[in-house]
Amino acid sequence: AGVVAPAPIRRLEEAVVNRIAAGEVIQRPASALKELLENSLDAGATSIGITVKDGGVKLIQIVDNGHGIRYEDLPLLCERHTTSKLREFEDLETISTLGFRGEALASITFVAHLSVTTMTEGQAHGYKATYKDGQMEGDARPCAAVKGTQITVENLFYNVAARRKAFKNLSEEYGRILDVVSRYAVHKTGVSFSCKKHGDSRADVHTVGSSSRTDTIRAVYGPGVARELIAISASEDDPSGTTFKMDGLISSANYSSKRSIMVLFINDRLVECGALRKAIELVYATILPKASKPFIYMSINLPPEHVDVNVHPTKREVSFLNQESLVDIIQQAVEAKLLESNNSRTFSTQT
Ligand code: ADP
Ligand code: MG
């Protein structure tokens, strides 16, 4: 084999760089939806409606009643690294919003067509603007609106042929979207969510902000789960203040399912934690073999400095300080709850 001469190193065009970066943040329709949903929650919305066509590839539309976007901010809205949420790097330690890096909307505009209609409190009318490759196209135009924001994303990956072709099973993509909405709906009681296919009159997920968490779980995951939930909590106190607090709802011995579901929020962020999931499933498998595929909802609060929020937007797996001991404490709490409920069940069926 001969020696290959090195190819010259060239600087990529900005448009190419942006499209590559965008494909990393927005991997599929559900990742776009998650970013839009988190923006609506960050805007203080109490009602969020989603409409989806062709698994989100053709259309994702989200309507919220949040605080809206100021007219003067519309030109910056979809530029990369523009945000109303973060100023200094140090703010990351205490940040309470879900977003902060100002990358999501920009990314979407590099791989899809995006338009926004928005109105802030006390305005006589709203504005509509469309965006492409990070830039607003023309001027924002006045239009009739109500307070809040509507964002429409069309033809996702229209300019990334390989990615577009990867989404053959559109109902599976829709399923992933429903999964994100369902999880947020369970955690964010106080917010009404709906998600439906374009053209359908009936929503596939529909929750009411005034409902209890158990009622929300019933609406989303069905009455079979909702009727078998046990409340659980655990916390650890430290002389310097509470180190952690966990509240949740877990399925009882009477619940059996083909697959387990774990809805986990840490400091109000939707995450996955394989170590915690395994530890809990082990408890079920050991003491309730017939109910070994549980439903678990857990919300864990840790001091913000114990969790690094600055992981890649698509990396849902988290790790945190003192993870091992925390997983231990939660595992013991689950075990105690299950034994307690199992004993009372045996007792009540015997009498
Ligand atoms: P980030 O959420 O990290 O700030 P995004 O690209 O997701 O970045 O959004 C950019 C900015 O657009 C946000 O900081 C916010 O000011 C504004 N924004 C986006 N979506 C909404 C919305 N639904 N309601 C109000 N403001 C929004
Ligand atoms: Mg965001």
TrEMBL record:
It comes from Ceratodon purpureus (Fire moss). Residues 217-339 form the DNA mismatch repair protein S5 domain. It comes from the Eukaryota. This is DNA mismatch repair protein S5 domain-containing protein. It is found in: Nucleus. Belongs to the DNA mismatch repair MutL/HexB family.
